[in-house]
Amino acid sequence: SQQGEEDPQALSIQEGENATMNCSYKTSINNLQWYRQNSGRGLVHLILIRSNEREKHSGRLRVTLDTSKKSSSLLITASRAADTASYFCATDALRGQNFVFGPGTRLSVLP
Amino acid sequence: NAGVTQTPKFQVLKTGQSMTLQCAQDMNHNSMYWYRQDPGMGLRLIYYSASEGTTDKGEVPNGYNVSRLNKREFSLRLESAAPSQTSVYFCASRAYFGTGVGADNEQFFGPGTRLTVL
Fold first, then answer.
1. Is A81 helix (H, G, I), strand (E, B) or coil?
2. What is the pLDDT of residue B101?
């Protein structure tokens, strides 16, 4: 069973708008990471948030983590067409097998 | 510094054929992983190697074998390919098999191998 589940499965927005994706998970974690995958390519690491952190920023990315609700969100501000990709959350479990990916959110940013 | 490299990029097999997917990393990472990604889905872990000399099954290991040849190289073998193994295969590495709260440890991915089994 997959640890992380992203929501929504697909999101379509206009350039300049903000995009918010959510991730829920099931067990205790060391950290949670977000990755981007452009069509036909490998995954690229975007940002990592530790279990003892609640919010983290990196450029136009803002990630929050709520360990009590076992959920995280990724906000991309002022989106660009180049942000069109699939976004995955991956949880690094506290025990057992680490790094479990969710099914991803497909983001389309329309010019 | 090439990161994680995979060969081949594309492969077509007939049912029952065997092949080995190669993966190498030049970042001196301890842990290496093999995933498969089916259309519209996330990555599923096939096997991983927490450190040189060890390998363990992931979520979907049936039909596959792995070899951690040395610290740099981690290969995935399909002994008798089946159409259900048609997928994109990704190799990844990370510095160490993280444990404990606060371990910062991202995975680095190769470009993938697109495998079709007829």
1. helix
2. 46
DSSP label of A97:
S
A76 in Cβ contact with A16 (< 8 Å):
no
Distance separating alpha carbons of residues B34 and B32, to the nearest angstrom: 7
Residue B103 with chain A: CB contacts under 8 Å: 30-31, 92
Would you say B105 and B96 are in contact if contact means Cβ atoms under 8 Å apart?
Answer: yes
Residue whose entry in the numeric block shows the structure tokens 């000399």: B53
Cβ <8 Å between A88 and B108: no
* pLDDT tens figures, B71-81: 999 999 999 99
Q: Are strands B113-117 and B10-13 parallel, antiparallel or unpaired?
A: parallel
* B42: nearest CB among A41, A50, A101: A101
CA distance B103 to chain A (A): 6
A36 beta partners: A44, A87
Q: List chain B residues with pLDDT less than 50.
A: 101-102
Beta strands in chain A (DSSP E): 5-7, 10-14, 19-24, 29-37, 43-50, 55-58, 61-66, 71-76, 85-93, 100-101, 105-110
Confidence of residue A91 (pLDDT cuts 50, 70, 90): confident
Residue numbers of A between 49 and 108 with CB closer than 8 Å to B: 50-52, 88, 90, 92, 94, 97-104
Which of B106, B109, B113, B114 should be substituted to probe chain A, the one whose Cβ sees the most A Cβ atoms within 10 Å?
B106
